[in-house]
Amino acid sequence: xxxxxxxxxxxxxxxxxxxxxxxxxxxxxxxxxxxxxxxxxxxxxxxxxxxxxxxxxxxxxxxxxxxxxxxxxxxxxxxxxxxxxxxxxxxxxxxxxxxxxxxxxxxxxxxxxxxxxxxxxxxxxxxxxxxxxxxxxxxxxxxxxxxxxxxxxxxxxxxxxxxxxxxxxxxxxxxxxxxxxxxxxxxxxxxxxxxxxxxxxxxxxxxxxxxxxxxxxxxxxxxxxxxxxxxxxxxxxxxxxxxxxxxxxxxxxxxxxxxxxxxxxxxxxxxxxxxxxxxxxxxxxxxxxxxxxxxxxxxxxxxxxxxxxxxxxxxxxxxxxxxxxxxxxxxxxxxxxxxxxxxxxxxxxxxxxxxxxxxxxxxxxxxxxxxxxxxxxxxxxxxxxxxxxxxxxxxxxxxxxxxxxxxxxxxxxxxxxxxxxxxxxxxxxxxxxxxxxxxxxxxxxxxxxxxxxxxxxxxxxxxxxxxxxxxxxxxxxxxxxxxxxxxxxxxxxxxxxxxxxxxxxxxxxxxxxxxxxxxxxxxxxxxxxxxxxxxxxxxxxxxxxxxxxxxxxxxxxxxxxxxxxxxxxxxxxxxxxxxxxxxxxxxxxxxxxxxxxxxxxxxxxxxxxxxxxxxxxxxxxxxxxxxxxxxxxxxxxxxxxxxxxxxxxxxxxxxxxxxxxxxxxxxxxxxxxxxx
Amino acid sequence: xxxxxxxxxxxxxxxxxxxxxxxxxxxxxxxxxxxxxxxxxxxxxxxxxxxxxxx
Lengths: 676, 55
Hints:
Strand content of chain B: under 5%
Largest sheet of chain B: none
Helix content of chain A: 55-70%
Radius of gyration of chain B: 12 Å
Order of helices and strands of chain B: HHH
Shape of chain B: flat
Oligomer: heterodimer
Helix content of chain B: over 70%
């Protein structure tokens, strides 16, 4: 298939008619450039809808409705329904085709109703004249399109690159997709149909011969054969049921083993939690000890440390007090004077001078000099002592406080870690409860699986024996045919059918093996061309196993399908697709497969992008890219332009919300908008 | 159109199986209806055997 043109009318963001012509030939790259949300994927949707009538693309939830008609027009047009269409023109095996799908929609309140109106597939004749064949029936159109590029394999060539790496994953769905693609593109499915056709014709012809022969011996032999076949079928049905049971056992064993492995995790986490709690309690103990030391320190020194600024004033005050007290009459003089009733200093008779006696007695009662002196001395001594040790004391107090702060932070960190671990345990706690039950169930399933395996082995022997007996009966019947001259013609037909059947079986086997080998080799070669030079030895081989599943084999011959990055997986998928297209095309230049990729570079490094830009145009007939601004910087633009492979460039211009148009851009103009 | 690699394999078969299989694969590609394909194969083989017997 070669894509020539797409025309969209009132489709998604595009009001009116927009046309894109796709490049091919020597300059086979078409770029449609638009920033995110401007309508690139709308073009991808248009292509999928136009070719296959698919409203949903890979990235959509198939259960959610997708609307294709211009929202803007539906909003603005409150009256008649809005009509839209997509028309794709393409070439296949040298013939030109045009497929047009129309749809109609209306908005009722907040609900949009859309329905497909018509489909028309037109084949042009050799001279390019319209209408060699016109199909307007959906079933016929679908059948024709599936002949051209089967819907089941379209996602290999027309895809959202964000999803394409899933091709190199190992889920059952993906394995099936890969198998289908190889089988369809390389016509292995046709060989299988051929085999089936021959088988059915053989048994039909044989039945006819037996009926025509009207021979008791032949009929009786045929009866024996039929009985034997029935017996084999019964045994095979039992074998199949046993195999299903065995698979279920295996699944359960895997499931239980996984649960137990998860419980191992819980045990590890619990050990971790225990360790953390122990560290926490020793940390809390140490912290308490430090706080005790701090308390003692504070009780001893805090008051002095706080008062330190006031100590000079206090000292001065006490000194002043001492000086003032030097003029006061000593207490013993006062006591002696009172005792002798005569002043010891001036010999004044205090009995006569009662006023003086009263004065001396008053002086004595107020006298506190000796107490003040000792108190102030004690205070001063203490101040001096504390001042001498002030710096040391302050230092050790601060150090202690810092240590406490540090240890408290460590305690808080530990608490946080404990909280995280506890949450983790909480999530899995239910499973932990059933640990013992799971262990028992695992043992039971292992035993059951082993029993079933033994039964399958036994039944295989029974089937083998029955098949040998069947072959013998068939030989005997065949001899009977040979000996019956009236069956000579039909017998010859049967023998050709039988020999053809064997040939087709052999060819299917040989061809499948050859194709798998070829596909593995070419995919590996292409991967090595596409990948960044530094990763060239990452993969030893891209293998296609006998079930047609994709396996990525590393340097040490270990499967690394799940271990490589998403970007690398994307390149593996691209290598596989281009190899598949190459083998499917073979020597026939008319068999072509376009590569239509939405946002292909998002997950790729700069060097991988460069490798793709240089090599993909040489590996495919057409490369159509929907690129966003981050995928097309000046560097990518330079690489795109250097090999002169860029044929067409379109820019999506947004005029308003849900209103965009597509404009062609001359290739000599700057294309990128970033990194200028 | 038979895949070129497959055609190479089919060409290694001896006659008449080579022709029978080519025709059968072409019919499978072209016709799609199982009954028609089967009937065409039957005719091809029967015609061949008829010629062979005449000779």
